[in-house]
Amino acid sequence: MFIQIEPLSNVPIYEQVTRQIIEGIARGDMGPGDTLPSVRSLAADLGVNMHTVNKSYHELEAKGIITIRAKSGAIIRSTEERALTPEQLQQIEKNLKPVVAEGMVLGATVDQIEHMMKKVFADLQLPAEGV
Amino acid sequence: MFIQIEPLSNVPIYEQVTRQIIEGIARGDMGPGDTLPSVRSLAADLGVNMHTVNKSYHELEAKGIITIRAKSGAIIRSTEERALTPEQLQQIEKNLKPVVAEGMVLGATVDQIEHMMKKVFADLQLPAEGV
DNA sequence: TATTTGTTATATAATAAGTATAACAAATAT
DNA sequence: ATATTTGTTATACTTATTATATAACAAATA
After folding, report:
1. Based on the domain organization, do A54 and A98 belong to the same domain?
2. CA dihedral B95, B66, B18, B2 (to 10 degrees)
């Protein structure tokens, strides 16, 4: 699997796992209907505890990105199933705000920030385009 | 002062303080050369401990946003002093990535995300325009 | 000179993060 | 049918983080 844990990071391991799975889906490495590896096997792969991965999966479920079927596995939901509610949109905006504010205070221009946005989009989408 | 603490938030208090000071600067509520309130007075205002605010100030200093003069106070640095190094730009991009990725996976379009960006920009800049 | 300032130190408590084992019952594979 | 794998649940433990509470120090300021 594509996940790489940075043990010295200030970002918790379960959060690193969550983010990298999300980025993997955005990048098209895996898509709707695909099953995630079992918490035990992924934990063994990453060299971390089962519960750490389990926490990440439940975070993904809370975000509406996957469905966990008890005693079976975790499946990536389809785009139709993931509604994109107004609450979710608002949450994204709330997450965006401190990042943008920090960038501006550090002296980044609107153009610079929008340029970075495009880089992030490209980084997440281009590999899929290459198929 | 404009800072509002949400005690039930999963975001640590010192981090809430840091973010809201940054947003205050971005919004133009306070600018370069201005001094932040003393850690003791702000802590009293917010009803939190001195060290919590102190931690926030040192985080702001580490980000290059303020300068702490020992036994004197904390001053907001000028835009010229805040260099905006390539490392900082890269950090902003790194912060942006998981937020954008999550938005996309949840089904937000590029246009929707860019529209939210503009809302955030407006929210941070318009009040200053009104002066 | 008295007050305020950031700094430093120590102590304590609560919560979060992470690991370690173990057992259960349902789902799946053989 | 049996064995394995699965997510779930429970308990226990360690460590780090967050936050508070006091106190004292020395420099800056009023």
Report:
1. no
2. -130
